[in-house]
């Protein structure tokens, strides 16, 4: 289906992710979105899928379609698989769209075949035990099972080995032949440019080119200015054209080779020098791996050698550095889209943003030891509060600190939302009591229990808020150094303080990571047809669907942490070089005194 974007902008907090996008996606075509990390590709896909709302502008679908006619496949398949078998996972989106049982099974089998999965072989297998390429195919099958009018793919070949990537490309070709309207966000320009009917280049959240891929080569440095490099076959073709070896740029690597097939490609095997054919005139010598040897001649070898020389030149090195740049993603989606310093912004923007990151807010610049001491002191005070007034004052103070720290409202809501069901459940446990069957209705409401339970839940929420404020304003290295300083005296008692500091710092940073995974799973469920808002997303069924993939991701992350610690030769019995040197300044003394004064006032108010 055709889709038109008019003046579409989007931002995360105060950070613009997209700015004034005007783009038409043609029906039945394949559009490639390209740009460096943080240029806005994933954000644009989420807007097209109806998973996010633009800050301004509009997205117009065809009269008979809407965002519900769109399916999206995210970059990480482990965040999109929920059911116990491949067939059940593919049928999930059909179930959400209320497709009857017989039609669901038939549609799932058809989608699996179209995605390159044999229903008989893969139908009853666990999707969590498949390879990366097979998981990506299951995600594609689940996306196309409802017969969407528009299919969105986010980095479909990322992390795949060459055979899996080639198989997935074959699947994309088949989907294109079947008439699907495809939008693919990718860095793999060599694979997808030859298939593209339209290319859209994003830079710093703005659209700097849209049109056929061939139009890019007539415009000077469009991709380079966006921090990207043209595909290898274009770079080689440009060199060969300058040498007079080609009369036009090739449309693909296959076309480049076909136009050079009159030149002999000499294979250099493992035999002796006397047995190897000589490389002269127009021949290209290849190593056993297929790479050109320096002794080989021919236009293609000359073009490749020229590219190698260019990559070693200052201009080529600058292009590589620019291409590797990108901003950090916003927390609601680990892949996702964000804003920050982009390569095309130039040195001035880079320096300005770097200076801003070095300065930060006043809370971020404080010594971590101040934050540790303040958090411990405030935690002790909050735990001893029994009345509503001091708890309310503490909540106001912590809320003011969150605002002063520059934490966005979206980030704060994202953090607290998963805790709300737990808070409500704990409050209900304390507000209702079981009186037995002889007292009439067995479940009785107690106003005293409700009040005490509400105060207990508020105390718990304030303690969690202190941890949220601490981790949001303190990165990993300062957090751990401050903790090791605080518990260093315990080392004289034989306590392995390094183990404790490592465990606490990892735990504090693990909580935001888990919340990020929950947000990703919720987004994936929404992309499969569960578009419920608010509490509708927290039904027992949906929580159970998220439990298994979340547990597997936590276990996987734990294994990776254990491997990283072991690989670095971690020995808790030996001293280590600190990651940074802590420096106590006057502002730290002032901040500690203010924290102690505020804690004393709260303590006084609670008695």
TrEMBL record:
<keyword id="KW-1003">Cell membrane</keyword>
<dbReference type="Pfam" id="PF00005">
    <property type="entry name" value="ABC_tran"/>
</dbReference>
<feature type="transmembrane region" description="Helical">
    <location>
        <begin position="589"/>
        <end position="606"/>
    </location>
</feature>
<dbReference type="InterPro" id="IPR003339">
    <property type="entry name" value="ABC/ECF_trnsptr_transmembrane"/>
</dbReference>
<dbReference type="Pfam" id="PF02361">
    <property type="entry name" value="CbiQ"/>
</dbReference>
<dbReference type="InterPro" id="IPR003593">
    <property type="entry name" value="AAA+_ATPase"/>
</dbReference>
<dbReference type="InterPro" id="IPR015856">
    <property type="entry name" value="ABC_transpr_CbiO/EcfA_su"/>
</dbReference>
<dbReference type="InterPro" id="IPR003439">
    <property type="entry name" value="ABC_transporter-like_ATP-bd"/>
</dbReference>
<protein>
    <submittedName>
        <fullName>Energy-coupling factor transport system ATP-binding protein</fullName>
        <ecNumber>3.6.3.-</ecNumber>
    </submittedName>
</protein>
<feature type="transmembrane region" description="Helical">
    <location>
        <begin position="419"/>
        <end position="437"/>
    </location>
</feature>
<keyword id="KW-0813">Transport</keyword>
<keyword id="KW-1278">Translocase</keyword>
<keyword id="KW-0472">Membrane</keyword>
<dbReference type="InterPro" id="IPR027417">
    <property type="entry name" value="P-loop_NTPase"/>
</dbReference>
<dbReference type="InterPro" id="IPR017871">
    <property type="entry name" value="ABC_transporter-like_CS"/>
</dbReference>
<keyword id="KW-0378">Hydrolase</keyword>
<feature type="transmembrane region" description="Helical">
    <location>
        <begin position="388"/>
        <end position="407"/>
    </location>
</feature>
<keyword id="KW-0547">Nucleotide-binding</keyword>
<feature type="domain" description="ABC transporter">
    <location>
        <begin position="3"/>
        <end position="229"/>
    </location>
</feature>
<keyword id="KW-0812">Transmembrane</keyword>
<dbReference type="GO" id="GO:0016787">
    <property type="term" value="F:hydrolase activity"/>
</dbReference>
<dbReference type="InterPro" id="IPR050095">
    <property type="entry name" value="ECF_ABC_transporter_ATP-bd"/>
</dbReference>
<keyword id="KW-0067">ATP-binding</keyword>
<comment type="similarity">
    <text>Belongs to the ABC transporter superfamily.</text>
</comment>
<keyword id="KW-1133">Transmembrane helix</keyword>
<feature type="transmembrane region" description="Helical">
    <location>
        <begin position="449"/>
        <end position="470"/>
    </location>
</feature>
<dbReference type="GO" id="GO:0005524">
    <property type="term" value="F:ATP binding"/>
</dbReference>
């Amino acid at each position: 289906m055709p889709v038109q974007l008019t003046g579409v902008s989007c931002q995360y907090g105060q950070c613009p992710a997209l700015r004034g996008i005007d783009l038409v996606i043609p029906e039945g075509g394949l559009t490639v979105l390209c740009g460096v990390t943080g240029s806005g590709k994933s954000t644009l896909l989420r807007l097209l899928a109806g998973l996010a709302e633009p800050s301004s502008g509009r997205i117009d679908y065809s009269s008979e379609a809407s965002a519900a006619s769109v399916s999206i496949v995210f970059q990480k398949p482990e965040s999109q698989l929920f059911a116990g078998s491949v067939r059940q996972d593919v049928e999930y989106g059909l179930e959400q769209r209320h497709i009857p049982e017989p039609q669901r099974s038939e549609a799932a089998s058809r989608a699996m075949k179209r995605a390159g999965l044999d229903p008989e072989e893969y139908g009853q297998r666990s999707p969590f035990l498949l390879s990366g390429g097979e998981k990506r195919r299951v995600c594609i099958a689940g996306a196309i099972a409802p017969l969407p009018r528009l299919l969105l793919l986010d980095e479909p070949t990322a992390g795949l080995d060459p055979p899996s990537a080639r198989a997935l490309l074959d699947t994309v070709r088949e989907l294109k032949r079947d008439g699907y309207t495809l939008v693919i966000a990718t860095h793999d320009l060599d694979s997808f440019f030859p298939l593209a009917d339209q290319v859209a280049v994003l830079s710093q959240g703005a659209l700097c080119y849209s049109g056929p891929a061939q139009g890019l080569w007539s415009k000077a440095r469009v991709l380079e200015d966006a921090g990207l490099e043209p595909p290898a076959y274009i770079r080689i073709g440009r060199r060969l054209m300058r040498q007079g070896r080609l009369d036009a740029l090739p449309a693909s690597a296959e076309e480049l080779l076909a136009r050079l097939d009159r030149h002999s490609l000499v294979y250099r095997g493992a035999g002796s020098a006397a047995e190897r054919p000589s490389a002269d005139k127009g021949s290209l010598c290849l190593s056993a791996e297929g790479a050109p040897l320096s002794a080989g001649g021919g236009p293609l070898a000359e073009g490749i050698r020229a590219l190698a020389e260019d990559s070693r030149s200052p201009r080529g090195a600058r292009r590589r550095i620019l291409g590797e740049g990108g901003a950090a993603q916003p927390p609601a989606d680990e892949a996702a889209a964000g804003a920050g310093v982009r390569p095309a912004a130039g040195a001035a923007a880079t320096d300005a943003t770097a200076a801003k990151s070095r300065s930060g807010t006043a809370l971020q610049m404080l010594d971590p030891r101040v934050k540790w001491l303040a958090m411990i002191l405030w935690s002790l005070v909050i735990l001893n509060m029994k009345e509503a007034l001091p708890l309310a004052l503490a909540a106001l103070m912590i809320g003011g600190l969150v605002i002063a720290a520059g934490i966005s409202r979206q980030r704060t809501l994202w953090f607290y939302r998963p805790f709300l069901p737990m808070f409500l459940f704990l409050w209900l446990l304390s507000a209702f009591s079981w009186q037995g069957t002889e007292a009439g209705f067995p479940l009785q409401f107690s106003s005293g229990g409700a009040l005490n339970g509400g105060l207990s839940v508020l105390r718990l929420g304030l303690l969690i808020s202190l941890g949220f404020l601490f981790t949001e304003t303190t990165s990993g290295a300062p957090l751990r150094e401050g903790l090791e300083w605080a518990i260093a005296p315990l080392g004289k008692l034989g306590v392995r303080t390094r183990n404790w500091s490592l465990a606490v710092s990892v735990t504090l940073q693990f909580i935001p990571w888990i919340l990020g995974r929950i947000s990703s799973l919720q987004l994936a469920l929404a992309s499969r047809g569960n578009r419920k808002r608010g509490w509708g997303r927290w039904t027992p069924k949906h929580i159970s669907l998220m439990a298994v993939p979340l547990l597997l991701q936590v276990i996987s992350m734990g294994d990776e942490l254990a491997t990283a610690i072991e690989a670095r030769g971690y020995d808790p019995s030996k001293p280590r070089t600190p990651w940074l040197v802590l420096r106590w300044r006057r502002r730290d003394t002032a901040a500690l005194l203010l924290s102690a004064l505020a804690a004393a006032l709260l303590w006084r108010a609670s008695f």
